[in-house]
Design a protein that fits this description.
The structure is a homodimer.
Chain A: H1 13-16, H2 32-43, E1 54-60, H3 65-72, H4 77-83, E2 88-95, H5 108-125, E3 129-133, H6 138-145, E4 151-160, H7 170-177, H8 185-188, E5 189-191
Antiparallel strand pairs in A: 1-2, 2-4, 3-4
Helix pairs in contact in A: 2-5
Chain lengths: ~200, ~200
């Protein structure tokens, strides 16, 4: 299943095809080489002062299923219901401080968001899918995986191959079939001054 | 001039080729259609609760040079020195509150960073370059362009065509010729637990 964005203007295929499904194929593993390519894409994201404030922890069910299960246990039940089929989970953290002077880095989250979506776009180019979740217990994950307080918990991400939606609950099936939506361009993007629609 | 990332693992060309140069061609305009495609790529970024917390203001020197100049005036002198040649400037703001309940959105910056880099990756695919700056006077821009306090100023971005580095100062020329650098993968990306290098 693919679900390309219905765009108002042409965009590159791997951006249009990036999508956050909830149907993962529990029987298709993601290889270590694939994981490294995904991380490599995140690694080359831009950042303020070149700080690279992002830190990711990766769990591969096919390599260490016990650790993967502990990560899954940090996710809220509503997300676990589908994330349990994703062979790879990733915790995405952002440094609160700059490395060069240990002062607050107000772009820590911003730059980390760029790294995370770079991973997702790379995944799309490899035939993989990703889905980020804010719904997880960050403090439980912090304790379980020794994440220092200096790092903010931003997201958990499911990574894998998309599966047929037949395995989903009726509610998730409905969400999978609903059209992708975004606000009109002119509502968020302005020409020369605030609120003046660009189109 | 191109400056692809020296990667440890294969990644898609439009991610590897994305780069933040300081040499812009002042004589090559970016068309309105190109600008809309760039924004369209940002528009389809993922966001928490589908909030789409990003707001961008775009200034096109070839359309409204006075407004573009007012935007340039908000940038710190060190960045103005090269951004003055970029035909398009973009201010990137993040909503501090969720649209559905007006409660604080701690992913506002994170999701906006994803939208901004999506624009940059799209730009790369179109032969354009971008460079984001934290070095600008956000409160001056807020006053000049009526940005509500609810929105945090994240970045200014230069957009255009890369130029030959001969027009740059010696210092900027040196930076342009220096190799691109990132920390080693294993320093930022971990396997199953904090600080355990994935590679």
């Amino acid at each position: 299943m693919q679900k390309p964005a219905i765009t108002q203007a042409p965009i590159h295929d791997i951006i249009a095809q990036r999508w956050s499904p909830r149907a993962y194929d529990a029987n298709k593993a993601v290889s270590q080489a694939q994981i490294i390519s995904l991380l490599e894409a995140a690694r080359w994201a831009p950042s303020c002062f070149g700080d690279e404030p992002w830190r990711f922890i990766v769990w591969d069910k096919n390599k260490d299923s016990a650790a993967w299960q502990r990560a899954l246990d940090c996710i809220v039940p509503g997300n676990q219901a589908w994330a349990m089929n994703a062979p790879v989970l990733v915790l995405i953290c952002a440094d609160r401080l700059f490395g060069h002077n240990q002062k607050p880095n107000r772009w820590g989250g911003y730059d980390t968001g760029a790294a995370a979506v770079s991973l997702s776009i790379q995944a799309t180019s490899m035939g993989l899918v990703t889905h980020q979740m804010g719904g997880f217990d960050g403090e439980k994950a912090r304790a379980a995986f020794n994440v220092p307080d200096q790092f903010e918990m931003m997201a958990m991400m499911a990574v894998g191959y998309v599966a047929d939606i037949e395995g989903l609950s009726d509610e998730l099936k409905e969400r999978a079939l609903a059209p992708r939506k975004r606000k009109p361009l002119g509502e968020l993007f302005y020409d020369s001054v605030w609120n003046q629609a660009i189109i």
